[in-house]
Amino acid sequence: MGGDYPIEGEIQSVYATGISGADIHENSKMHFGKLLPCQVNGRCSYMEQRDFDPDEYDVLIGHYLQAHNENYIEDRYVAYDEFPGDAYFFEPTHNEATRAITNYLQIDDDLPFENWKQLTRRRFKPEYQDAIDAWKDDMSSYAHRDTRRESQQSRGFHAHAPLLAHAGLEFELLDNEWEVAELDAGRVATKSPDDEWTVLIPPPLYAAESVVALDGTPTITKWRLILGGDWVYHEEVLESNQEKRTYLRDVLSLQIVQTNAGTKPYQSGAHVNHRSDGALLENIHEQEGQKPAVITSKQAKEQYVSFGVDKHIERAEHYGNLKGSNEFAETRLGAVIGSPHPPEDEAVERWGALNGDAVSRKEDSDGNVTKGNRLDFGPLGNALFADVVGKEVLQAVMRFGRTASGGEKGAIVYVHTSRLPRWINPHEEVTIKTWSKGMQEIVLTLRESDKWPDGEWTNKEIAEGVSIQPRQVGKLMQELEEEGYVTSRRGGRGNAYHWSNVQLEKFAEFGRME
């Protein structure tokens, strides 16, 4: 509605309590004492668009959340294109959840508690079990929303309060300090050690004729939770690792070049190595004769601009902005740099808790918490971690060259992280070596010298313009000679080295690839 309508803030507040958009429109006078601005000149276009008979259409296309509307899926074949992520999560703050529960308990007399604290402290006492069991029996499979008008007028109201109260009654403590509550109809609630709530509310897919989920790199545990049942049947189109490798090579025409990089967790930006990344991109630019497109983290993209790495990049995108994107579908040269590493509590521990498992980092034989390439969460945790790291790296690789154009298909993709799935055999492996700061100082000093480019320099002369000692200067100059950038002769006092330029103007700024 825009900023010209002061009522917008009130609408957002009511919507945040779990009351649907349709309910807000239909009962605007009850909620706000007046019609909504969109209703003043007739019926709202939003409500008009909702008013249709699904049976008149053979195919309905919508958002994941619209699967909650049973009228849209009843007796239909439902297809999911890619994993819904957190679309079915309800994530109230701890204060929002406990206020909603307290408000509900003060209005509803069926549970023998007056507030959240009483519920948590007395829920296991024998004298309350009959009342609790009776209340649970009255909760129908999908009646988890409080739609009573008197409730909606109460401070702290939330439509999901019955579901939150049910979770409060069922929470059990796991070994990693997470809590989990298994509810009915596939619903599950978790609470982190920091009291962060997540309630998974799958849609009523029992009404559908059948459900098909499409995912190139699925994690079955997550799909089973999202779809709300143990009845998921997993049919792999590519049944073996060899078939997967053949698909990448022959069908997608991808040539994967793996570097010697480590895991390179780039999510936070704290571990971005712009010199190593710059060396890779600079050498790709030089050897391939064109700049690559890059997929990396948002923080890495920003640092590339700060350190001048971006001059070797055609265009770049970050991991979080790839879903459904075809930006690189016709790009023939790409680089995937660094791996996503979202917060482990959200990506691994929470999903483990939703499955009823305590998942956390394991310790090695010396009692040290595992990390890097040896990071270990146990079987389920490793699968969950791979789902958001290794599989996301692979999905990024597969974004390149997927569409044929101009008689070309596929792409060459350099991967600068070790987080690719282990079954992948790269087309080529390369090593990235960065120049030391001393080396960069030497080259800059030579280029800015009065003798540049045709003069000669001794180690002593070079050392006067840099921060390192003559002995170290000599070692670095020998390295430059081995790389073909300079040549030397010996003579004069002490049979000193005299260095002269061969092709220092072509010196790669960040490092080399071999």
TrEMBL record:
The UniProt entry, under InterPro entries, shows: WH-like_DNA-bd_sf, WH_DNA-bd_sf
Top-rank taxon of the source lineage equals Archaea
Looking up SUPFAM superfamilies in the UniProt record yields: Winged helix' DNA-binding domain
Can you name this protein?
A: Uncharacterized protein
